[in-house]
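Quick one: YitT family protein from Azospirillum melinis, structure tokens please.
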Amino acid sequence: MAATLQAPPAAVERHQLYEDALAMLMGTLFIALGMLIYSKTMLLTGSTAGLALLLSYVTKVQFGIIFFAINLPFYWLAWKRLGWKFTARTFTAVALVTLFSRLTDQWVGFTHLDPVYATVVGSGLCGTGLLMLFRHRTGLGGVNILAIYLQETYGIRAGYFQLGVDFAILAGAFFVLAPDRLLLSVLGATIVNVTLAINHKPGRYLGIS
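--- reply ---
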């Protein structure tokens, strides 16, 4: 039997449609820019985006195409466990990141990008973008769907769950990335997930979509 989400308290203010739309737009733009910064310095993040980025390094296929394809199987879980509205928002967010990843490379150019700076800023952008999406009941596919489901159903912190998955993905990059890039990627994954763990605690943010 599919798990049901607890009904929100009556006093909780519901997000307006324009608020959800703005959060999705800004969140996906932040994540697309973060992914571009990572790709320009051969860094790796975690979650489904990290797996897609790793495969793009190996296959030379564009990140956005792989990212969209990897997420397809997870929509069934989102539909069954988290509802069609969450699934529709997540599908839209994944499609926007796929689109913006392609366009951002045309909008932004770098002549010099320090790897340490890229790690901090890229992971900060991704963490903030994910936080925007999470607070408006939107995932970014894959591990994000599992993370939100586990937090809302069992109280497992989304950030800490993702941190464990991310380290597993980063471990698989041992033979692909240079040692210094791998260490910086671990730092970046930590920044992303600590950002989520600190700012997305159950009951702390009461707005709903």
